[in-house]
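Moderator note: this is an archived Q&A kept for reference. The question asked for a predicted structure of one protein chain; the sequence and the answer are reproduced below.
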Amino acid sequence: MKIGFFDSGLGGITVLSEALRRLPNESFVYMADTLHAPYGTKTPQEVCGYVKTLVQTILKEEVKALVIACNTATSIAVAELRREYSIPIIGMEPAVKPAVEMNRANGKRVLVLATSLTLKQSGYAALVSRVDDHGSVDSLPLPELVQYCEQLNFDRTELFEYFNRKLSSFDLDIYGTVVLGCTHYPFYKEILKELLPSHIQLIDGSQGTVRRLKQVLSERNLLASPVKAGQSQEGHVTFLCSSQDEAYVHKMERALEIYTEHEKIYL
């Protein structure tokens, strides 16, 4: 059986890439909700409806676990999905807690980059309130970055200008960690590393999410067994999209290639 991943578009591929690395014996199905992307500009009620429809479709692929590879969709729909379905459902949230913990000793602040909808959710406010004892977390919405990613736009001049404009009002010297709170954003880690002061660390929720996925699969005896000599290797990914757009399927395959190459810099 496969592990299901879904997002509004290409962003969840950053989480899928981590899963492919940490769970090499598994097979995956990744579905993008191209009919309704991007989620970050929709109302919570709209997103919840889209997600429920998407999950009904992806469960037809005989998945044994489901990863909501989207911070916005998780904050809006994960509780309801867990009430409706018995399979393990792994959600995501911006990596605020580890970012705050990383900065406790140095007194630096945390800057969370995310979509406007994620930052407006009560779940995000509750997360920050729970882990940020000293009021050290600031937030910045970057909705345009989702569209850059969906276009596979990595034009350095354009992206540098964009980030410089968005960050111009922040004194970056006072920050120790920047949280990439949307799964699309890690596509731009390389550019952000060059642009931000060298002392700033970048963090996102992919590693924690996949660690949790692996733990849950292990607890329920759902992990795929290692392949034996002569057997076919798992690790296959099936890409689907709600619009049934073959060109977008090829774009997802290309996005995974691009991100995997980018990630080799940091491993």
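Archived answer notes: The chain has a mean pLDDT of 93.
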